[in-house]
């Protein structure tokens, strides 16, 4: 396994691999790897013969009051996990300037799908995500890129960006990996106290509640949202950012009745960390 820390070397390596006929997959991450990331690596291996994992805590996708400074950075453990998982290349930019020249003045702005959900509560977040992923695509030149369904809005925006900007990259989605009690794995779960960790199962419990009511015939989005809201608000350390039911394709709010696939997405602070999860309802 090779660790590449400089952007020009990354791009030259990718060009040489492509010239040699190799098929490349990129798994973009911010490090602090867990079983969810490693599942994406396994999926990437099914679609390519060279797997590149990028590890870069991207400053531009954090808001001024978010956790950029304290985001867990655990490169040695990440490196060992990547080696064990059969990753071929880790792209680990030595410095932010490898990705953002000091006078960088170009960004990638998505202006439709990013208006709701996390995009509404984290202004600029998806501009940061689109910009860094566009750069990573240009540096690693992948044939396929793998993203987790856990970040449902991000996944849909990545598909839209690849389409709109004509990146010759196939976007592949990996299912959300969960703890046994349903909590989606996340680097931010480690900030939960034991009591909050128990309460944090309410995200998945709320989604299951919506799935069950939907299966029983409920088609009114507001009724589903209210049921989820009550379940989450019953936990003492929760503060709801949003609970929304949006069209799975446009991410516009769904009006009654639900007749097309709908993304149910929620973001909840449980104590300090803000956790997200989602599911899709298919009529
Ligand atoms: P992050 O390092 O948190 O930015 O995530 C990197 C990639 O891993 C993104 O595509 C995420 O959607 C994905 N991911 C994060 N958590 C999970 C999970 N529990 N299951 C599957 N994929 C995940």
Care to describe what's here?
This protein has 283 residues and is an alpha/beta fold. It has two domains: 173 residues, Rossmann fold (3-Layer(aba) Sandwich), CATH 3.40.50.620; 92 residues, Pantoate-beta-alanine ligase, C-terminal domain (Pantoate--beta-alanine Ligase, Chain: A,domain 2). Helix content is 36%, strand content 19%. It contains nine helices and nine strands. Helix 5 crosses helix 6 and helix 8 runs antiparallel to helix 9. It is globular. The protein binds adenosine monophosphate.
Shape by Cα distribution? globular
Let me know the CATH homologous superfamily of the largest domain: HUPs
Named CATH topology of the largest domain: Rossmann fold
End-to-end gap: 45 Å
Integer tally of domains: 2
Number of helices: 9
Which value, in Å, is the CA radius of gyration? 19 Å
The amount of beta strand, in percent, is 15-25%
Strand order of the largest sheet: 1-4-3-2-5-6
Strands, count: 9
Features of this protein?
283 residues, alpha/beta, Rossmann fold, Pantoate--beta-alanine Ligase, Chain: A,domain 2, three-stranded antiparallel β-sheet, 9 helices, binds adenosine monophosphate
